[in-house]
Amino acid sequence: MHWILTLLIFASPLKVGWVKFIGAKAFSNRQLSKIAHLQKGNEFREIMLRSAELRLRSYYRSRGFFKFKVDSTKVETVKSLANIKFFVSEGPRAVIGQLEIKADEDTAFLRKLIRPKLPMWYDEGKIKKWQAAFLNYYSDSGYPLADIKFETEWLVDDTMKVTLVVDKGPLVLLCGFDVEGLRKVRRIVVMREVDIPKCAKYSISQIFDVKRRIYTTGLFYYVSHEVRPVEMHGDTMKALLVFKVSEQKPGRINFALGYNTPDQLLLRGQISHNNLFNMNRKLMVRSEVRSNLINPRRKLIELEYSEPYFLGLKLEGHGLGYYCFDRDEQVRKIGVSMEMRYIIVKYLKLHGSFNWERFFQTPENMRGVVNFVELNPFWDSRDNLLNPRKGTFVSLRLVQAGGILKGLYDYRKVEFEVYQYSPWLQHVIAGRLRIWYEWPFANTKMMPPAERYTLGGYGSIRGYDQRSIGPKDPERPFHSGRFLVNFNAEARLRINKLLGLTLFFDAGDLWEDIRDVNLRELKCGAGVALNFYTPIVPFRLDWGIKLVDRGPNDRGRLYFGIGQMF
E strands along 425-519, which residues? Predict the structure, then answer.
């Protein structure tokens, strides 16, 4: 019996135990274990040691340790674990003392692209970044076939010279464009997004921008490109630029269930078709219900039609019809909106709309029609709408209701917003400022109740109850006003791929009139948020507490949100 147990123990496969690198000083034990592919708990085989030595030698050489060697290896077997010791000699690390660039262009400009700080430790990863920077420059200047090689030369002791040799290849001119992979989408849908003139120099940034616009039509799974030579004249190549696409199904049905702080569930459904008449015209029906588990608080039904190139121009046209019932606002609305969107330059856009709305207000039993126009220029360079890491958003929204447009109410709005996102290592510093003002004119003495601003709670100043800041609303059971100032700052710290921690500060106030402003009375809140990152959208749990007007028993408030707050 004993010999059977012994045989079973020795027959069971060995697992990697601890791994130590005796003599290693430049890199940590954990880092070298990953490089050697010797992770604790993995199955151990003798051949792994030889592979680990080769990986270690390659890694050390890429970091400038050209005299690195593994002196010996020792494996100690304890039960079913193989504990491994590598005895290594790192040797001296090479230093880059000189950098030479061989190219036909002004090498001073190329040197500015990489800004080398010499002397520096030899690092192939850094040299590859230099090569990539040169390749990006040349592929954006008409030379996509450029080749960058590097050579090394020892100078004295452990100091070496690195030479970057540039072969830029032929100048590529794009003499034509084509698209492949279309099944139902018409060719013009893709080609009208191509704004590169014929015989223009190859520019990878321009091509990426065209591919981004083709992809954002929502008609394709992926978009790639290929350059096909047509003819060669000396050092100039004429080529055809071909966009390759893969269509996706235009019809979609989406459902979403969510939670809206502080106590509302959100149910949303959407049916859409993104390619009516095979011309990227879109028709969409949306329905949304918000409930506090007892009664529906808000119901919304929308029918939207959009035309990406209205009348063949670079105008994006939208038509929207909607019905809305809001129990909290005590109002029912039915309306129609006609909107035009125009891209002035890459990040600068202009939206304009005309809106007709019939409403029924309770409990006053008031009803009427509101006509208003809206003009909204904005700048948006954010890299991601749901979870931005860098970029700027600036918006100025101008609204006029009534006046020459007629209708029950006459009022104007000016709403200014600016958002800023700045990366810091793997973290993000984010800030937002909102200044909104509205006022009635002509025969209107008070703003419509549903148009008054509210402040407080998640989305504005955390630590306070929803809609609890500002003067008392004259008709509804919360606070509202006409002049709003709100500032938010967040330090979004990334812990790992799944978790993050956010430190935030909120400030602002709400007044009935701009003449009532007193910045000494600003309401302030601060707190911390735990972020959960998913491949689609981040989730967050915020805890905020008042810094002003806090009672003795106030322990703050919790908020749950989907996506970043701004």
Answer: 427-440, 483-494, 499-511
